[in-house]
């Protein structure tokens, strides 16, 4: 039996490795982490992440060929293939602060692999890393005096949270980058064989190391760019009475453009889009390409503008003040079907409204615990309420900030009756039936569409 080790039991390690274990019964898969609480949660019935379908796969494989552990050194020694999926956040200090990737966790892992290895191994970069990181990893690993050889591969992960299991079971592509040497080609083939257990061969792309590392940053930059593009147009729609949903449908019908990722919103969130684009911007600057850097930086700036615009629009629509007004935020997660709140636009809107001295109550079916941790510096000023009806009671306004399908099924007549009048809904996800809400009595402010409000002064 071959041994696979994954270092980092976060979203990526925790959702990809159980699927590898389920398709490859002849491999023993161990996931390790320095975070003991996290590992204990992976070993329990209450997994540390909410990801539809994952519980069942973990239940089926755990204890058979899937194991969670904090004994990192021992498992490094035993492993044939080591995936590294530690976090690579934006560096917040020194050179490149606020842009470059912070590679300290990644480098510690490389050194730990080196110290504890007694046999040659394949080391796979699963984390998202700056292009040419594998070169540094190879240098660290192969500078050993033990006569060991390490093949470094890049195998970036493209899954999205909330659909991780589906994305991993049926990926658009699996990307594997490696060296064009004999040993590099053999290493690539070992990894191809693992994925080929369930992924059709033609969807497994093999490239050189740098193309693979860079493709991951570029894929995220392109996805985020589409959202910033449609959000930029949403602002223009609000000035011109064009409707962003109609514009997106018309534009997306062109097969060259495509219909996905054109949903205007309060902004994109998540742990990766912003950090990966800033990383790309830093790389462009590093390689002396300031024009290219500015081009991509604008995607992040547009997102910040959209979040700020949403909060500012609320204040101006609510008679230029929200001070002391109860505002119910529906949604804390950065998207539906996850409990992840990293870089969530809901938290940005919350912070902006707290600046305006609003009285905030936040509701979410899965993400309140994480939101509470993220907003701990403002703990006394936000109320966390799992029941959306209780959250909305006595509120002046509701903000839809996460597209949870459950919010479409609420009894908005009942909610309207319990709110202060005039009652407002700001739909940051264009999720609800706006005409119906207006008929109930709400003043409705979507993204990129004319408001349905009894309070708006029309020019004509
Ligand atoms: P995460 O923060 O959820 O998990 C990382 C884990 O690594 C943590 O549990 C941390 O304790 C552990 N860790 C850090 N240093 C360690 C060490 N020296 N030894 C053992 N464990 C260590 O991060 P994530 O969301 O899983 O992301 C991991 C990487 O994958 C990042 O580079 C990210 O950009 C990339 N990625 C993330 C997603 C996503 O949807 N979250 C998707 C694709 C790629
Ligand atoms: C994203 C990518 O989709 C994955 O391919 C990638 O692997 C991952 O980042 C990563 O590297 O971490 P994720 O952030 O989990 O996945 O979720 P997305 O579905 O991409 O959504 C990101 C944000 O964009 C969310 O806040 C979502 O609400 C928003 N969004 C998405 C829009 O506002 N409009 C859209 O049309 C689509």
What would you note in describing this structure?
By secondary structure, the chain is an alpha/beta fold. It has 17 helices and 14 strands. Helix 6 links the parallel strand 5 and strand 6. Helix 9 packs parallel to helix 12. The longest helix has 32 residues, at 209-240. The termini are far apart. The model has no long low-confidence stretch (mean pLDDT 96). The protein binds nicotinamide-adenine-dinucleotide and uridine-5'-diphosphate-glucuronic acid (UGA).
Number of H- or I-type helical stretches: 17
Distance between the termini: 76 Å
Major β-sheet strand ordering: 3-2-1-4-5-6
Instruction: Give the quaternary arrangement of the chains.
Output: single chain
Q: What fraction, in percent, of the residue positions are helical?
A: 40-55%
Number of strands: 14
How much is the average pLDDT? Answer: 96
List each distinct ligand once.
nicotinamide-adenine-dinucleotide, uridine-5'-diphosphate-glucuronic acid
Q: Which regions are unreliable across 5 or more consecutive residues at pLDDT < 50?
A: none
Percent in strands: 5-15%
Tell me the radius of gyration: 24 Å
Shape descriptor reads elongated
Largest sheet: 6 strands, parallel
Question: Pairing-aware structural class of the strands and helices?
Answer: alpha/beta
């Amino acid at each position: 039996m071959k041994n696979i080790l994954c270092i980092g039991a976060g979203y990526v390690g925790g959702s990809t490795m159980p699927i590898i274990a389920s398709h490859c019964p002849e491999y023993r898969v161990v996931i390790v982490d320095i975070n003991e609480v996290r590992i204990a949660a992976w070993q329990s019935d209450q997994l540390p992440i909410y990801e539809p379908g994952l519980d069942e796969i973990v239940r089926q494989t755990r204890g058979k060929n899937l194991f969670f552990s904090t004994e990192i050194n021992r498992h490094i020694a035993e492993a044939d293939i080591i995936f590294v999926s530690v976090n690579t956040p934006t560096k917040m200090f020194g050179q490149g602060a606020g842009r470059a990737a912070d590679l300290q966790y990644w480098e510690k892992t490389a050194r730990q692999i080196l110290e504890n290895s007694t046999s040659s191994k394949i080391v796979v970069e699963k984390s998202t890393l700056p292009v040419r990181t594998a070169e540094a990893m190879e240098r660290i690993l192969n500078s050993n005096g033990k006569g060991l050889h390490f093949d470094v591969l890049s195998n970036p992960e493209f899954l999205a949270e909330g659909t991780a299991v589906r994305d991993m079971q049926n990926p658009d592509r699996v990307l594997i980058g490696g060296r064009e040497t004999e040993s590099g080609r053999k290493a690539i083939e070992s990894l191809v064989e693992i994925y080929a257990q369930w992924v059709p061969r033609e969807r497994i792309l093999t490239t050189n190391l740098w193309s693979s590392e860079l493709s991951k940053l570029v894929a995220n930059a392109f996805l985020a760019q589409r959202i910033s593009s449609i959000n930029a147009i949403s602002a223009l729609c609000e000035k011109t009475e064009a409707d962003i949903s109609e514009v997106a449908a018309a534009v997306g019908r062109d097969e060259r453009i495509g219909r996905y990722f054109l949903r205007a919103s309060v902004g994109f969130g998540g742990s990766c889009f912003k950090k990966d684009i800033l990383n790309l911007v830093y790389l462009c600057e590093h390689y002396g390409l300031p024009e290219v850097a500015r081009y991509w930086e604008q995607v992040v700036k547009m997102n910040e503008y959209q979040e700020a615009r949403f909060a500012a629009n609320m204040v101006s629509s609510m008679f230029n003040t929200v001070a002391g007004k109860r505002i119910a935020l529906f949604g804390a997660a950065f998207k539906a079907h996850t409990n992840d709140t990293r870089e969530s636009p809901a938290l940005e809107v919350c912070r902006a409204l707290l600046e305006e001295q609003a009285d905030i109550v936040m509701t979410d079916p899965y993400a309140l615990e994480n939101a509470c941790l993220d907003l701990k510096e403002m703990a006394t000023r936000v109320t966390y309420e799992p029941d959306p009806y209780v959250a909305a009671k006595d509120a002046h306004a509701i903000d839809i900030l996460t597209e949870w399908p459950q919010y479409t099924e609420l009894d908005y007549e009942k909610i309207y009756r319990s709110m202060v009048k005039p009652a407002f809904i700001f739909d940051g996800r264009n999720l609800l039936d706006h005409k119906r809400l207006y008929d109930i009595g709400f003043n409705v402010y979507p993204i990129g569409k004319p408001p349905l409000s009894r309070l708006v002064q029309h020019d004509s």
